[in-house]
Amino acid sequence: MANEKIRIDKYLWAIRVFKTRSQAATACDQGKVRWNGNAVKAARTVVLGDRYEIRAEARKWLIEVTGLLANRVQYSEAIKYYLDITPEEDKLFNQRVASVFHTGKRQSKIGRPTKKERRDLDNFMHDEDDINF
């Protein structure tokens, strides 16, 4: 495995920083993956000891490559192939963002009415139609 060449997008997907390889490649293209302060392209070869700064959707990472991984494995195995050296202030930022991050669920009492509220509204509107002025 020492002579194996692995692209950065494939590596980030394999260690589970991104859910899909295309998301990893897009992040590279958008400059969200940096090596020595410079944005890297998705095709860049990963070398042991490299340090990458990654800005994922709701998280900032600073990782050091400790092993090369070509295929996606479970999380407990994947964490053996990198060292998370994210500074404490960024880890605190990650926790704060994660607690308020949009999960796709609608917040209570905001937005569309519930089924019960729609029934009540329909009943109110129909009762109003029955009143003759």
TrEMBL record:
PROSITE patterns per record: S4 (PS50889)
SUPFAM superfamilies: Alpha-L RNA-binding motif (SSF55174)
GO BP, sorted A to Z: cellular response to heat
InterPro entries: HSP15, S4_RNA-bd, S4_RNA-bd_sf
Superkingdom of the source species: Bacteria
One of the record's GO molecular function terms: single-stranded RNA binding
One Pfam family here: S4
Keywords: DNA-binding, RNA-binding
CDD domains reported for this sequence: S4
Domain RNA-binding S4: 7-51
The family this protein is said to belong to: Belongs to the HSP15 family.
Identification of the protein by name: RNA-binding protein
Organism name: Chitinophaga caeni
